[in-house]
Amino acid sequence: MSCFICGEKKLYKFLSLSHQPPSDAFLRAVDLLKPEATYPLELCLCQSCYLVQLNYPVDPEKLFREYVYNTSSNNSLKKSFESLVNNLVKRFNLSESDLAIDIGCNDGTLLSYYRPHKVKILGIDPSSIAKLALRKKIPTIVDFFSKKLAGKVVKKYGRAKIITATNVFAHVDVKKLDDFVAGVKDLLADDGVFVSESGYLLDFIEKLQYDSVYHEHLRYYSLKPLKILFKKFGLEIIDVERGSIHGGTIIVYAAKKGKYPIAGRVAELIRREEKFGLYKKETFINFARRVKKNKLAIQKLIISLKSKGKNIVGVGAPAKGNTLLNYCNLDEDLIDYLAEKSEFKIGTFSPGMHLPVFDESRLFKDQPDYALMLSWNIADELIIKLKKAGFRGKFILPTPKPKIL
Ligand SMILES: [Zn+2]
């Protein structure tokens, strides 16, 4: 394996989360009698450009077609999309003559916020969830984005003033990353802007978010490697912001070279990354040490509660939840079930640990002693909601240090 961005062969493996099934590969009851495919889940650091990436990319055909995440089940995500779209419309003076494209549009939630502004919209998404976008009458192409597809889109719809890719750009298949960026460049109008929002490496390290490592999430971005990637295609980063969804993101604005002034925030954030240690190997060695410690602490807490006869239910069944459950080995002897709202997951079993996924309402009937918060990134919002809805138990937050609330 070599670096996905700069091609460097010397990669330093700093974290192994063992072999795991794809974190969104929820199983039906009949699948439980069949073997389950697992793949190495390990992180390494490029010793040249300091990109953090997985060292085993799984064939994307095995991952995305059955992707079951739908945006509209997450309120804070919806709010963040709405404010992103409103900002884009204002900042780049978008009007009826402009086209906005969302790559990885999921159920079309982000694009729907352009509607009051009359901006032309188009979604692109390879997964079955894109059907929900079509149902909302959002023009959507159900396919993987590529340079070839970009050519077809230009012919049929014209070039885009804005292309967004939220929680997608770090997921693009390694063999197709260059093709993806080349496609984005072809598809952008001369004054077009590519806006990508991805999990931010600085938050990832600082807040010990090892559970956001899963096979779909191939790269963990900081600014310097991204600059190198865009430069290869005549693009440059013109601005950057930090977002708060998914536990911390960077929103990176890229445009054709020389088209926009470069905001001071770009150099400022790079300085901050350097100071934090994102371009030093020791930072990652230390991170791996903290991850192992966290695993032991979670196991110790859960086993001690369980030994006292307490009932523990996992709240939510997000991708990150499965990484945590699998890495910490929290199986049905320890966690009774997962309580979830998404209709796509209820009635299934979690990949790896095979915990049954039940409708969230069961939590209020059963009143288990503890709720393990697997969607800790929206825990504040969720805890208030669950208490209001009548849940009387305590809450366990697993990272960065297991905590009972
Ligand atoms: Zn590299």
Question: What would your notes on this structure say?
Answer:
The protein is of the alpha/beta class. It folds into 2 domains: 71-279, Rossmann fold (3-Layer(aba) Sandwich), CATH 3.40.50.150; 302-404, 3-Layer(aba) Sandwich (Rossmann fold), CATH 3.40.50.720. It is built from 12 helices and 17 strands. The strands form 3 sheets. Strands 6-5-4-7-8-11-10 form a 7-stranded mixed beta sheet. A 6-stranded mixed beta sheet has the order 14-13-12-15-16-17. Helix 2 links the parallel strand 4 and strand 5. It starts with 10 loop residues before the first strand and ends with a strand. The chain binds zinc ion. Residues 3, 5-6, 8, 46, 48-49, 51 line the site of zinc ion (ZN).
Principal-axes geometry comes out as: globular
**How far apart are the first and last residues' alpha carbons, in Å?**
43 Å
Strand tally, please?
Answer: 17
Per DSSP, the total helix count is: 12
Percent of residues in helical segments? Answer: 25-40%
Secondary-structure class:
alpha/beta
Please write the CATH class name of the largest domain: Alpha Beta
Biggest β-sheet strands, sense, barrel: 7 strands, mixed
